[in-house]
Backbone:
């Protein structure tokens, strides 16, 4: 009997056959999304199990993993320390590179020299669990070999582990460096960060003082050498004055010596300009070929442009007239005369330009020669008059430069001495590390969220992979994507299984009208189920055409629901007013008689042998011809054709329920005598390869494949998402 749950199945609504085909044709993206959606729905239990397992793993990781704490402190590095190259006055000062200086300080802070101090201060070889564990393992290994770990190697191992857990993170927008250290002991992690920053300050101060002392020592040596150089310069000046009886006199601005040098400088510039002008005029003279059209713009004049334009116009007019009229025609003669005059004018201008360029070149050469002579005279005069003054000026400049160097070195020595005694003020701790209150990992909420997200991704991926690997039919769109023409779904039937008697008696009375046996609703089905079969019957009649018609209903494998589909379809066609005969042609596992509650003592096989067997009326306008269970007996096409020809005169539709098409040849035999074939597939059970194999075999029978029926669909499947929004309609009908 149908339960209350079955009565309230508004989700078991009818699915139109055109819906999955339309969805499958929307594009590869929509098809992929449908495949993913159907696979997830069908294997949703597996997805839930994977997500639950991932959450359990995340929970176990959260509870069983020891808490790891991360302490953080901040230190500021404002400017670089002084270098020897910056103090030496004769060195080229390189521009300050802030990134390189920051990287240098980070290297110092993360060096073994600084790390070893912190390890020694806090006794991390004993207090830090990881360092202690590794060193203990090394000691045990060496003890087995009767060896002992030396102090240098022990310190190297401890420093390597320590630096592996240390992180130095520079702030790119400032001179701040964040120091982080992780440990299972939060108090120890904070102590390590603070001690490391203090150790770095002590190391930097010690290096700062050592550098100041080294610079001071070096500067003292340089000052001594520079003092000797100044004495040598002064002695050279005195010797030069005595040897040449030279007394330096400071010439006032604008004096004769100053005027001479200025004249020499001006003459040199004029000579350079004259040489350039001579080269340019010579180049223009040689480049000019007599064609005014090739002149550069700076040499062309308006007269030349006008002459060239007149020549081009005259040539164009002459060519136009000469190609049209005879040579002695008056306009042609006039055009020829104008062309000759324009050519003479252009040749005259070209000759004038060539003469002008030659004269300009000669003038430039003459000016270059005159300026060269003047420069030579001025050079000899300047050399004679200022040789002693120039030599003295050189010696004096050398002496003054050495004195300036000595003064600068003396000033730097004072700075270096001060640097060696004053601590560096450019490094200081900004934020000391505090004891972390919450662990870095594991974090319950984040770990559970990551576990759930990872489990969900794995579950969805597993469902999609399972759906693709299994190749089962999960929706009408799946069938349409593989065989859109031959196996397009004509109907999608929600899951509903009536109760059938397992072994009926040898003789049973025909089922009463409406299928009621007086004890329940064995044949009744919910309204949505009836609507689904009604749509299927409507599509069948539309595909087959005007009756009488014979239809074969088969499936790829056993258990796909072909018998239930055949019985319900026959019942629905009869309810629509058609005279229907349902023929059970499954000689191995006949079941149509069980659906209607009749016996199968005589049936199709008896009729095939020529016995007078009449179909049993199981409902108004619906007759059933059962089938005996004789697995060794074969169906014979010739008697079946004769029986079908006789049945066509009495019935509008003859429906054959055949064995599974992939197991026997009965379906192929029956396909050759009917007008169409309907293939039944079970949702989540039938494989696409089996369905395609059956389609290929049926195509050999040259009988039209009307389509397919997707049977046993889950009412909650996405296939029914549209109809589920109209549940109130079925509630009102119920």
Residues:
């Amino acid at each position: 009997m149908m339960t209350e749950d079955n009565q309230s199945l508004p989700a078991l609504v009818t699915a139109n056959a055109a819906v999955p085909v339309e969805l499958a044709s929307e594009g590869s993206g929509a098809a992929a999304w449908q495949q993913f959606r159907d696979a997830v729905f069908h294997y949703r239990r597996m997805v839930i199990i994977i997500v639950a397992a991932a959450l359990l793993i995340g929970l176990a990781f959260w509870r069983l993993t020891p808490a790891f704490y991360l302490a953080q402190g901040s230190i500021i590095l404002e400017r670089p320390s002084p270098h020897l190259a910056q103090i030496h006055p004769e060195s080229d000062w390189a521009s300050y590179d802030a990134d390189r200086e920051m990287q240098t300080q980070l290297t110092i802070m993360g060096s073994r020299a600084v790390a070893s101090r912190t390890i020694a201060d806090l006794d991390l070889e004993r207090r830090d669990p990881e360092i202690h564990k590794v060193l203990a393992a090394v000691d045990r290994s060496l003890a087995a070999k009767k060896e002992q770990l030396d102090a240098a190697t022990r310190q190297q191992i401890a420093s390597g582990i320590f630096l592996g857990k240390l992180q130095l993170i520079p702030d790119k927008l400032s001179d701040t460096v964040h120091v982080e250290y992780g440990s299972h002991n939060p108090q120890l992690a904070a102590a390590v960060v603070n001690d490391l920053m203090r150790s770095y300050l002590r190391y930097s101060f010690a290096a700062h003082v050592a550098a100041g002392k080294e610079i001071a020592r070096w500067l003292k040596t340089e000052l001594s050498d520079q003092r000797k150089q100044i004495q040598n310069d002064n002695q050279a000046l005195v010797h030069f004055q005595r040897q040449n009886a030279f007394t330096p006199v400071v010439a006032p601005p604008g004096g004769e010596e100053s005027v001479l040098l200025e004249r020499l400088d001006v003459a040199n510039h004029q000579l350079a300009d004259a040489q350039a002008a001579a080269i340019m005029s010579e180049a223009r003279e040689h480049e000019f070929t007599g064609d005014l059209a090739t002149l550069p713009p700076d040499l062309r004049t308006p007269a030349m442009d006008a002459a060239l334009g007149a020549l081009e116009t005259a040539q164009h007019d002459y060519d136009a007239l000469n190609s049209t009229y005879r040579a002695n025609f008056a306009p042609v003669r006039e055009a020829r005369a104008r062309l000759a005059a324009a050519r003479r004018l252009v040749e005259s201008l070209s000759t004038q330009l060539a003469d002008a360029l030659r004269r300009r070149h000669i003038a430039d050469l003459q000016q270059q020669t005159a300026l060269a002579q003047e420069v030579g005279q001025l050079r000899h005069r300047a050399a004679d008059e200022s040789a002693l003054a120039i030599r003295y000026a050189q010696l004096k400049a050398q002496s003054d430069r050495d004195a300036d160097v000595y003064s600068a070195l003396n000033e730097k020595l004072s700075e270096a001495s001060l640097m060696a005694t004053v601590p560096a003020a450019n490094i200081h701790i900004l934020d000391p590390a505090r004891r972390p209150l919450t662990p870095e990992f594991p974090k319950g909420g984040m770990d559970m969220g990551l576990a759930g997200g990872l489990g969900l991704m794995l579950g969805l991926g597993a469902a999609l992979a399972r759906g693709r690997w299994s190749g089962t039919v999960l929706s009408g769109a799946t069938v349409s994507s593989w065989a859109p023409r031959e196996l397009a779904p004509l109907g999608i039937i929600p899951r509903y299984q009536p109760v059938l008697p397992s072994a009926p008696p040898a003789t049973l009375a025909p089922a009463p009208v409406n299928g009621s046996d007086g004890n329940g609703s064995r044949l009744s089905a919910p309204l949505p189920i009836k609507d689904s079969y009604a749509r299927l019957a409507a599509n069948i009649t539309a595909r087959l055409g005007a009756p009488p018609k014979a239809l074969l209903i088969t499936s790829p494998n056993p258990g796909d629901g072909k018998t239930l589909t055949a019985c319900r379809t026959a019942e629905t066609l009869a309810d629509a007013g058609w005279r229907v005969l349902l023929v059970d042609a499954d000689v191995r596992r006949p079941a149509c008689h069980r659906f209607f509650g009749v016996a199968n003592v005589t049936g199709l096989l008896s009729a095939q042998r020529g016995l007078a067997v009449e179909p049993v009326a199981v409902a108004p306008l619906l007759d059933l011809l059962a089938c005996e269970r004789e697995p060794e007996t074969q169906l014979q096409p010739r008697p079946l054709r004769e029986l079908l020809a006789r049945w066509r005169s009495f019935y509008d539709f003859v429906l054959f329920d055949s064995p599974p098409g992939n197991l026997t040849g009965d379906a192929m035999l029956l396909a050759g005598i009917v007008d169409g074939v309907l293939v039944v597939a079970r949702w989540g059970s039938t494989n696409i390869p089996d369905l395609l194999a059956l389609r290929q075999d049926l195509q050999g029978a040259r009988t039209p494949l009307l389509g397919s029926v997707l049977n046993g669909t889950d009412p909650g499947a996405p296939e029914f998402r549209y109809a589920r929004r109209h549940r109130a309609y079925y509630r009102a009908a119920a």
